[in-house]
Design goal:
This protein is an all-alpha fold. The chain folds into 2 domains: 167 residues; 152 residues, no CATH class. It contains 11 helices and 2 strands. The chain has a two-stranded parallel ribbon. The radius of gyration is 22 Å and the shape is flat.
Length: 321
């Protein structure tokens, strides 16, 4: 029978991925509500482990920052605190998963590559946590926010890779050309996410009321133009990959849930992008756009990791002969 560590390992691997995506969602809520400076210090909040529940309990040395950068609203404080709490829980879950994977690898029941991936994820977590402090210290400088997010995306990627290695599931048979198609689509998606962060930086640097009067390109410039071009490219690449996977000769053996979700997510992401442009970038839709992009990245990465080259019939017959 599997040991306790072997039974717990896949559960904690799933928990880590879930928590990291919750952190992405919480970060999106922080941005949508303007709560980034809800806690004026780091890693504590107003110098405490638990933030104050009333304005009268805020220490005097933090009061000026609370009224200016924190907007004088404790709701922002608790939104930011929940974001940090979820981040801490995801780091703890990553560390526990690493310990369990190391035990399994030492017992020769798991490849040592899994603990190495998790260790790299834990190192990235430390860097992302430090970047969180930098973001707070610089009062949400747009470039620092971008680096912080990209570090979080790398952390999610490491967790997804570890999860697929621990729970590989049924392989998805693909041809050589389709494997490279998925690789190119994944690379273009990461580039598109980066271009999206450049658009967000341009938005953050605008003064209140400056955007947009039906002239988005005028206000946001080249980043928006490239992001719109990239959106068409990513949609085309992933849509073709979806149909190739869905209607290939080996579609019965493929991962139907992953493939279906891939198609649904790319349609939702492009649709929200269109609405964002038409409605001139409403604040509440921007984080939704980002969360779906991150989910699409994880889905495409998992699908790519589960893909296995399928030998053509002629090559199979030759091998058998």
């Amino acid at each position: 029978m599997p040991s306790l560590s072997q039974r717990l390992l896949p559960r904690f691997a799933v928990l880590t991925v879930v928590l990291l995506y919750l952190v992405v969602i919480a970060g999106a809520v922080v941005r949508a509500t303007g709560s980034g400076m809800g806690c004026p210090d780091w890693p504590r909040c107003f110098g405490r482990l638990i933030p104050p529940t009333s304005v009268s309990r805020i220490p005097p040395e933090f009061m000026e920052k609370f009224r200016t950068e924190g907007h004088g609203n404790l709701t922002h404080t608790w939104v930011e605190f929940i974001n940090r709490l979820l981040g801490a829980l995801s780091g703890l879950s990553t560390a526990i998963t690493l310990v369990l994977a190391t035990i399994a690898a030492r017992a020769r029941r798991l490849s040592w590559r899994v603990p190495l991936v998790l260790l790299s994820g834990l190192v990235i977590f430390g860097i992302v946590a430090w970047l969180g402090k930098v973001v707070v210290d610089t009062s949400l400088a747009p470039r620092k926010v971008t680096v912080h997010f990209l570090g979080g995306l790398a952390l999610v990627s490491a967790a997804v890779i570890a999860l697929v290695m621990i729970r590989p599931g049924r392989p998805v048979p693909v041809s050589f050309s389709l494997r490279w198609h998925l690789i190119v689509a994944a690379a273009f998606l990461v580039l598109q996410i980066f271009l999206g962060t450049q658009v967000r930086e341009a938005v953050d640097q605008l003064a209140a009321g400056d955007c947009c009067d039906g002239r988005l390109e005028h206000h946001l410039g080249i980043p928006l133009v490239w992001h719109r071009v990239g959106a068409i490219g990513v949609l085309t690449l992933i849509a073709i990959a979806f149909f190739r996977l869905k209607f290939s000769s080996h579609s019965d053996d493929a991962a139907p849930v992953l493939v279906t979700l891939l198609g649904l997510l790319v349609c939702a992401e492009y649709g929200i992008g269109v609405v964002l442009i038409m409605a001139e970038l409403p604040a509440f839709l921007q984080p939704v756009h980002l969360v779906i992009a991150t989910a699409l990245h994880g889905m495409l990465l998992a699908l790519l990791l589960r893909s296995r080259l399928q030998m053509p019939p002629a090559a199979t017959n030759l091998a058998l002969a």
